[in-house]
Amino acid sequence: MASSLISSSLHIDFDSVFGIDDAGLVQMFESFIATGFKNFLGCPTIFYEAALIEFFENGLVRDGMVVSTIGGTMVEISEEIFAAAFELPMERLTDLSEVPKDVVFDARSLFSETKEQVGLSCLKREMKIEYRLLSDILAKTIYVKAGYFDAVTRKRFLLMTAITFDVEVNWSRLLFDVLKDMVTPGSRQAKGYAIQICVLLKNVQGLELVESKAFPTPRILTEKTVHRYVVINEKVGAEEVVYAPKVKKAPRAKEESKKRPADVVATEPVAKKKRATKKKSGLENVPVAQEAVPIQIIEPIPAAPAEDFIVEESREATSAAPLMKKYLLKSNQLLRLLLRLVYKNQPLSMWMNRWQRQQLTRKQLLNMLK
Predict the structure, then answer these.
(1) Report field, pTM of the whole predicted structure over 0.85
(2) Which superkingdom heads the taxonomic lineage of this protein's source (predicted)?
(3) Exposed, middle or buried by CB within 10 Å (0-12, 13-18, 19+), for 51?
(4) Which of 32, 54, 117, 226 sits CB 3.0–4.6 Å from 37 for a disulfide?
């Protein structure tokens, strides 16, 4: 958890940054000193990991004070103790929306990278490099937000305006409210102020702090790290401003339509495809004897579905004609099957008795006779 407390914070080495050969950046860092942020942003870079973890685990807000326990020792931090430790002003504006409008108007022109004014909510790349860095310091160290912020919110823009134009603001109240949100259970405020809290804990009587750690060097703004920040951000800004010429794509050749044109009249008749049919093996070529029993012509009977049809029980038939009339005269195919049975000298009554006894369907009978 302690590593997350310092992962987004930035510390300023004021002695080093004043050696930067850039008047705009130097003036931006001087504005921190003028508004009273030097001791808060430039405090000793030592933190105590175990104490910080316990501080936030047991922390809460009681009677307007931040209260916690570390190793059984009670820790109480009031706004007055907080302001005195970092020499923060405790008077004047407590609401950033009260920043004078004429000052905000001037800031919109001063912060802009071009001649056009930027909006109160704008993109960071629209501002000069020193004010991009100012926005990052406020987002990561004052408001303790992680990640890269391309957009500048209205609240942060007003805070930048107040620092740049030396507007008298109650900085103690603003920062202490953020600290109270950090220890409030269920708050969405990210936890931070690691080295600042350790400065306060060192002044608590009876509290023993052990295993101190140094603040990570990459998180400290020096002449070297600021120069690296400028190089990276100016390169990113240049890539966003310069637009590469669009590559013209070669026109695609239209593919010939496979559809038949409507205005073309067909000169040749289109041959219709004949439906392939399977011939029943051997049935059409069965020779019929001349001595066949004459077949009576009867009226057609409405056919029932072939699959679901079940033969009803009836008395035995003794001649071919009554059997055909009652059971088999449903199609020409069944008629041919009957003739095939008759002229193979097989007793028809044997097949009919079996058909009636087993309740066979026509399809089952056909399979038996193949």
Answers:
(1) no
(2) Eukaryota
(3) buried
(4) 32
Contact, 52 vs 75, CB < 8 A?
Answer: no
The half-sphere exposure of 228 on its side-chain side, counting CA atoms within 13 A, is: 8
Q: Which string of DSSP letters, residue by residue, matches 306-361? A: TTT--PPP-PPP-SHHHHIIIIITTSHHHHHHHHHHHTTT--HHHHHHHHHHHT--
| Count of other CB atoms within 10 angstroms of residue 345 | 6
Complete DSSP assignment for 192-215 = --HHHHHHHHTTSTT-----EEEP
Compute the distance between CA of residue 230 and CA of residue 146 in angstroms, rounded to an integer: 20
pLDDT in tens, 190-235: 898 999 999 999 999 889 888 888 888 888 999 999 999 999 988 7
User: How far apart, in whole angstroms, are the C-alpha atoms of residue 170 and residue 89?
Assistant: 6
